[in-house]
Every structure is written in C-alpha cells, then in structure tokens.
Design brief:
The structure is a single chain. Helices cover 14% and strands 44% of the residues. It is built from two helices and ten strands, in the order H-E-E-E-E-E-E-E-E-E-E-H. The chain has helices at residues 2-22, 191-196; strands at residues 35-37, 43-51, 55-59, 82-90, 96-107, 110-119, 123-129, 138-146, 153-163, 174-184. It has a ten-stranded antiparallel beta sheet, with no helix packed on it.
C-alpha cells in the first residue's frame, strides 16, 4: 500500500513537470530587439521615454508633485539630494519594451546620475552617467553591469532630452532618448591556458 502511494506521488510529480514543460504557465512575450551594428564595432539599440506620459514614479525629499499622488518619500537625512524617477521605455516602433529607473544624487557640487534599464525576457543594464552635458545636450555614460543577455556586455549609454516643438495639445513635453551601444567584454583565459601561451 505504501509502495503504491509513493509510486503515485512520483508519477504525479513527473506528470506535472512534463505538463509544465509542454504547456508553460508563463509564456513571456518578447518584443523583437531593434538593433543595428555600430560602425566601430558593437550593437546599437535606441530607446525613448515620452514625458510625462511614460513617467511611472518620481520622488524626492520635500518635492511637490510626486507621482503617483500621495507618494511619501522617506524623510531620511541620507536621502537629501536624491531624486528617483521610473519610466516605461519604448523602442523605435514606440512599443513599450521595459522599464527604466533614473536616480540622481547631489554630492557637493557634483551630480551622480545612474540608469537601470530592465527589459523583460532579456535582462537588466546598469549605467553610470557623467554629470556634465556635452554639446547638443547629450550626457554620456558607461554600462557598468548587466544581467542575463547583458551579463557579458559592456559599452556606453547616452541620454538626450528633446523638447516637443509641435505645439499639439496632447503632445508630450518632450522625450528622453537613450542610445545603448553594447560591446562584448574580453574573457580571461583560464590559468592553464595562459600558461600554455
């Protein structure tokens, strides 16, 4: 009797695993990547954020107009000078492909600006930006880390604000354009391979 019970549990677990493999409970849809090849190597991918429509959250200590309404930013001395924004990010076809968080912190006279882009079914990218803008209102940054598909990639991220000049009533105030250039990181050889060479 016990054997029959245990065999039934094992067969039931195998059948459940097989059913989940054949018919996944979550089949995450992935928007195709719109990537082009950079002239000097690497891949280029463009994203944009329509402001304020794509803003999900904005918070800072003692800031009026937090999004969503009623958001209370923690009243902590270590968060003075920190501002966080979260956005939906769109690809060149204007399809929402993920979310991005932009954090700005002020230390003395310098701003520290970081972006985290999360693309479901692909992974996340973390980039540190330079505090100064260069000509054309472009801010440069470096991709510091990534997960999943981006874990072995480095590269750069640029940010640019483009104000809306259309005058349309329902047009956004402007858009933030993000250009990511991904480059593969050189892999270190194992110690035994280094010794051979």
């Amino acid at each position: 009797m016990i054997r029959t019970f245990l065999i039934g549990i094992i067969l039931g677990a195998v059948a459940a695993a097989g059913a989940l493999y054949a018919f996944p409970a979550v089949d995450q849809e992935r928007e195709p990547s719109l990537v082009s090849v950079a002239p000097n190597g690497g891949n280029i991918e463009m994203f944009h954020v329509n402001v304020p429509m794509d803003r999900v959250l904005v918070g800072a200590p003692s800031e009026a107009g937090a999004v969503p309404d009623g958001l209370e930013w923690p009243d902590d001395a270590s968060l003075v000078g920190v501002r966080t924004e979260m956005f939906k990010i769109r690809n060149a076809r204007d399809s929402v492909v993920g979310i991005a968080a932009r954090t700005t912190a002020t230390r003395g006279d310098e701003d520290i600006i970081d972006w985290v882009l999360h693309l479901p079914a692909r992974g996340s990218v973390f980039a540190s930006m330079e505090s100064n803008l260069r000509e054309g209102g472009i801010r440069d940054g470096a991709i510091r880390s990534g997960s999943r598909e981006f874990s072995s990639l480095g590269g750069s991220l640029t940010e640019r604000w483009i104000a809306d000049t259309s005058g349309d009533e329902d047009a956004p105030q402007g858009r933030i354009e993000l250009q990511a250039i991904y480059r593969g990181q050189p892999e270190r050889l194992a110690d035994e391979q280094e010794a051979v060479e």
